[in-house]
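Section 5.1 Outputs to date
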Amino acid sequence: MGYFPGLARTLGLHLPWHGARTGQLGEMHRATGEDMAEAQASALPDPRNASDLAEFIELLDRLRVWGGDPSFRDLAKRVGLLLRPPQPVSKSTIADLFQPGRRRLSQDLVVAVVRALGLDKQAVDQWRAACVRVHAKARPRRAGARPAELSADLTDFTGRTAVAERLAALLGQESSSPAAPVVLTAISGSGGVGKTSLAVHVAHRLLRRFPDGQLQVDLHGAGAGTVSAGSQDVLARFLRALGTPAEEIAIDPDERGAQYRSLLAERRVLILLDNVRDTAQVRPLLPGAGGSRVLITSRSALVGLDGAVRLTLGVLEEEESLALFRRVVGAELAAAEPEAEGAVLGACAGLPLAIRLAASRLVARPDWAVQDLADQLADETRRLNVLSVEDRAVRATFAVSYRNLSPEQARAFRLLALSPGPAATSLPSAAALLNLPPREAAEYLDGLAAVHLVEQSSPGRYAMHDLIRIYAAECAHTDECADERDAATDRLLRWLLCTTGAASRVLQPDRRHLDLASMQSDCRPLTFDGSDDARAWCETEADHLVAAVALAAESGRDEIAWKLANTMWELFNLHEERNGIPTYELALASARRLGDPEAVSWVLNALAPAYRRFHRMPESEACLLQAIEIRRSVGDLRGEASCLGNLGHTMTEGGRGAEAVPLLERCAEIFRGLDLPIFEGAAHTNLGEAHKQLGHLDIALEHHRTALGLHRDDDAFRRGREQSNIADTLRRLDRLDEAAEYARRAYEANRQTGNRIDEAVALEVLGHASTGQGQALDARRHWEQALAILHDLHHPRAAELEALLQADTAPDPRRTW
């Protein structure tokens, strides 16, 4: 038999010994150790003497006195320390055990108390057996308990048809095996996306499949500042709901879990676990075998939940958003203002909670039209204020996730909102913004993706929902100091400038490039393996770069603004459908604010071709005349020649070939004197086009052949363009066989370099050559390919080629474009 004071010392407890109910304890207090042990043994109550539950409780109370008469609080502490793992036990739990008149006792609790009072294993077993014996006549368990705990379904639940059907099929599936495997369906997604609404809606559809009831609990796993529900507390609640008397619920966690699984083994119950924090919180609540099913909602993907079927909810589709909005506000009211309705739904960006709150606000204001609501939502700085009704708010649901982030993740979330434009941010861009190595930045961003504050739109690219981006920007302004925000923006913009500059040098190594040395401190720009790599990066980041120029200009970073725009020349030049005018106009304003004439001339020389592509010839010419004047004033001969070449090209495009020729001849002369054959070749290209316009086809062909000879063999872009020019000129000279040969080479080269306009020229020539050879079907195929490209580029020649295809007779092969 164990000696209680020794146990007390082991547990570090101070246990006063004093006499009560018998004089024997007083004798023990004065006895020697041997006498004390004998006195203890003689005073120890014997549980076998209990004939019923009342006597058993009396003997248990005498045992507490024998054990030093500890307070209920002290005894609760001892019991908690003996549990595995140790856990808190309340004072009231222990006090209830000793109350006379109880009809049932928890056997596990009795055993734990007896152990805490210092008895050895043999004595503990005697007390356990006695507890079982005196309960023999206890009332039976409420075996027929059938919980019905589901929340009410939404009467206006809308959309999610496909995912609801899949979820219902997963939860309702039958199995021929005796113990069907549990289907764990984890619905994860950002706050406000409608996880709980969907879960409850589907659960209500399946009530007949679960005749033994439904259990539901909000585990508050996403709630910042709210204590998440403990698994053991939830187990106790579920056991009570399933008919287990409170006094019979095991204290030991393993035994309590076994009770729960045993009850569910022969039942078919639907268990909805809402707002789960992590896998550890939910694992003890899973049934072991049988027909019960578990439905889980969480903002986390719960990657540690083995065997789970995961459904990640996204935003509503456009039609679903429209249906939900009209169902709340009424179809007649919404349909009366379709444009305003579209603006409201655009502001809500498919988030179900946002749509409901916006609609509720409109319903609450009968004096409002839909346009009034749209006007309220138009201001991004106030949008989250508008999307708030009583105790529900979009901002609040995002705040729950934000406050649960680690400090590093929270910083990444805030700063990511500073990335310009709605386009997804690449990992290298984010790393520059956060001032972190890419691998470390990826860890934080992946953590944000796991709780759906960002999403990976594609590998290595991170996007934010529009409303989450607005919230993140608010956090950046409230929780991040202005100096850090500015430093982060500077890092990103400088990184984009230097990386785009590196791509530009790869794409056009011979072009005159800006000196970016002053921007490269603490900057690690990307490097590129070749032109394909550089071109792909520029195309992928195009929208991001355009937004970056706007951000730089609007925030007073004028040097970055004008230089970044100029490094994007290749992007706009290769993709003529892209409108570079707004970007270059912002850059021009920045250059002028700096008072830097050379910067102004750089931007003017880039803006002029953008105007020309969109047939704004007077503005293009005005830009170039200003740029030439500046270049001459600073003695920049090469810059002057570049502007002359662009001006000659602009005049030719405007039908003024005769005026263009002398300018282009001067351009070729300057480049020849500077020993820059590539740019001399460009001047001859433009001269060929001017003479072609004037009808001097032989002279034009000579200039184009001269240009081709000046281009390097490895310069696929310029050679492809020149071969298209030669093919077109030969076609006009009715030398169709030669034209077709050049056109075939031009087509392949231009496809490789992404030069789509000259690819279309080559196809048009091949069509004419096929017509000349009597191959009408081949001709139509080539022209249809060319027309598709011209349509994509919004090129004015598309109309002429369309008319050609509609003609009843084959055209004259010498017909001009």
